[in-house]
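hey so i finally got around to running the thing on that chain from the lab meeting. sorry it took forever, my laptop kept dying and i had to restart like 3 times. anyway pasting the input first so we r on the same page abt which one it is
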Amino acid sequence: MSPQPIRFTDEKLVNILSHSPNATAIYTGAEITIQFANKAMIALWGKDSSVIGKTIPQALPEIVGQPFIAILREVWQSGISYESKNTPAELFVDGKLQVFYFDFIYQAIKNEKEETDYILHTTTDVTKLNAALNLAYESGEKQKALEHEQELNQELASINEELAASMEELSATNEDLQQSRENFRKLNDILEIRVAKRVETIGYLNQELEASNEEIKASNEELSATNEELINSNQKLFESTTKLEQTLTELAESEFRTRSIIENAPFPIGVYTGREMKITFANRSIIGVWGKGKEVSGKLYSDILPELSNQAVFEQLDQVFITGKFFEARNQLIELIVDGTPQIFYFNYIFTALKNGNGEVYGVMNTAADVTDVVLAKKALEVAAQEKQELNEELAVLNEEMVAINEELTASIEEQSRFNLELTSLYEKLKISQDELELAIDAAALGTFDLNPFTGRFSGNNRTKLWFGLQPDEEIELNKATDVIHELDRNRVINAIEQALNYDSGGIYDSNYTIKLSGDSENRIVRAKGKAIFNQEKQAIRLSGVLMDVTEQINSTQKMSALLENLAQSEKKFRTLI
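ok and heres what got predicted. didnt touch it at all, straight out
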């Protein structure tokens, strides 16, 4: 049996949309009156069914002052649809004003005169997804997002089954309409036969006219009654024909509205008939996903999407057609050639068998949801978690190196202390200088630095910024720091930094240099020691270390050398006098 044409009545359409998991509403008029809102939309609003028939400001007073009413009126006036993603909205839900985030579309549906007939509003609550993205490093929220998606997928599967059942009911309704047409045709044939018989009776009476005037009179009376009955029958036939034409017109208009809504639905819908899967219906969303142009109706599914031949989709469709059992896939990777370019998508899709009145499968309905953004977000979260783990490992290594550096500096300070004690016993005259040197060592403080080679900026503690004469900003440009290094040391320090950022150098950075600030400030000599961290591509991603002010140590050493030299000269003169 050939498949019946697919038609949708207003009642069936409302039933389909009422059970849709996608929040849907229909508005009319410049005042934006709510003509329909399914349970999902009413739940999002936090209201009840009493909002039907009210304007948006009356039903949702809390959105007055928010941009949505102005957008809806602009869509009604201009006939241009409006779409937005991750948009915040304040709604009064569960007794309090709360902020939600939505992906929504205001779709202007037009009549044959290109005038806006009504606005189709579909929306998705992405508040939890938005929160999940903001809390990307918390695995608990990620699990909740996955569970929520699974619940949505289960609801989508259930609604698709109901949609398939509704389409089967529509098919049966169309068969009833065909039967009504056949009944009207038979009635017309019967009337024509009766008319023919009446005409035959009139002819017979005319033949008997000469025989009996009484019979003629009786025949005329009978003819008059017959004619009156015929007129009444013809009037009833005319009225029936008029009602049939009116019914067909209303059915056509209902089908036009229904097809208009389904064609403009934001999720892909397609219907394929015959085991060869001929495309008999494809809405705009699925045509856009395919990327093969608008002329797809009447063509074979395999001819439109040959790239699916090695992706198991054709086999899934064939099994649904043969067995009559629906097939569901979740987060399925599908490669499509869109506008000539191969692209990767992820879909939740369902293939549902379509059956005629005899229970025979005549086609397959395809509904889908593009979850590419959700899947990619999950993968991004997994990558971020991995990167966090690697960074923690690198920080652990850096901490170990910093401990080693601190131990080395501690050993150096202890060695310097011992040396100073030995000098105290030998040179009592240098007591003041020794005290100053010991005080400088005891009060020695370290500065820290952390350079990002990609941005050319580094961060450091307040002591480092103070030494370089910089403002206490969070990050500093490297060239601002190198500009205050003494011109005799500057190029050597820059070369040492560049050498440390080279993977082959081992990443070691160790340099002494003088800081020369403008004005009357004294020069400061520091020792910088650190190490670079490299990624898998041998690119430096960090250069971190410490700064130690060695100005007084070096100055003290210089003074000590001069004093020793003076003592040696004095001793030499003394021996000469002896």
